[in-house]
Every structure is written in C-alpha cells, then in structure tokens.
Amino acid sequence: xxxxGYVENDTQHAPAGPEVRRRIQESFDRQGLMAHLGARITHxxxxxxxxxxxxxxxxxxQHGFIHAGATSAIADTAGxxxxxxxxxxxxxxxxxxxxxxLLAPAIGDRIEAVGTxxxxxxxxxxxxxxxxxxxxDGERKLVANGQQTLIxxxxxxxx
Length: 159
Description:
Layout: H1 18-29, H2 32-37, E1 40-45, E2 48-54, H3 68-84, E3 91-102, E4 110-120, E5 124-134, E6 140-154
Antiparallel strand pairs: 1-2, 2-4, 3-6, 4-5, 5-6
C-alpha cells in the first residue's frame, strides 16, 4: 500500500552499476557505527540508498522503541550514500546539516531508512530522508522524515 503523497518513478528502484555498488558497500563496511548498530545496506540505486536496522534491545530506548539516535544515524547515512552514488570515484561527501522529524514511535521488526537525492550540484547536494518501521508481515509506517545537505569533497591524492 502506497502512502498518500508518495510519488514513485521507475528509476528509484533500479540498482546502480556494479562499480558504484562496490564503492558504496566498501565504504559502508568501514563505518564502525553502522557495524556496531547492526545496520546493513539493502539497496543501492542511482541517487537512492536503503539501510535496514533490525530491532533488538541494544538499539532501543527505555520504552522499547528504536532509539531516535539510531533512527537518525541510519537516515543520515542513507542520505550520504545516496549522494555519493551520483559523484565520481575520486569524490566523497560529508554531511553539512540535517533535520529530522520523529513522527511516530519507531516500532516493528526493523526500521528502514531511505535516502533520496533531491538536487545535486557541484558542491552541495540535498537529500530527502525517510525512515519506516516495518513489521514482519511487511506493513510499513513512516516514523521519521527529514532533509539533509551534504558537501562534495575531493579525496586526497594518493601518495
């Protein structure tokens, strides 16, 4: 079931090329926080990345909901990698700022963050961030949304 206001185009779910997927996955695998949280990438497409975080006691807050810090961390990371998919291999991105609205308690068997590039420029890129709580039966509920600005940085030259 699609949510009201959700617009889907055919390229949103197309996978990125193998070289982009490799580069993004290798970078993600170097992120200590994502490994610590137990997050994993489930989709890498042109301008779009999905990250899933299974619900478990270590990522919850005192009421049993997935913690806002964990929710925000995977949203920020999904947007960052979505932006990185549109840049060449000699570039990297850093978050300049992001704002996230927590709309409902993050409950479910997992949460899924989706970062989508809205506008990419030479220096700054803006991404939409969405996080859904997902139950085992596939029911999805939007639990957070936001917007992020990233800056493109050149990787240092190899010595």
